[in-house]
Amino acid sequence: MAEAVLELVLHNLSSLIHKEIAIFLNFEQDFKSLASLLTTIKATLEDAEEKQFTNRAIKDWLLKLKDAAHVLDDILDECATEALELEHGGFNCGPSHKDKGEIGRNS
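Given the sequence above, the corresponding structure tokens read:
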């Protein structure tokens, strides 16, 4: 019986590890693609900044783009904060603190 339970635990752990590795590898590929795309965007923006003085449509586009960049920056800050909280909080696969409190009150 203990052997069957251990086998199940090892199978589940192995599956979890494989999923985590796949997520990491996909993230690495996505990161490389994003870095390449950002290089292209930077070159386009540099060109647009030069042309904004003679083209009002480009100037308006740049203003809207800057607003969008600020929104994106806020989102990235939130993601970084959540990542730090997860990193410092550790891996928790048990009941949440709220659940523990509720269990204690009902007992």
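Residues 55-88 form one domain. Try to locate this feature in the token string yourself.
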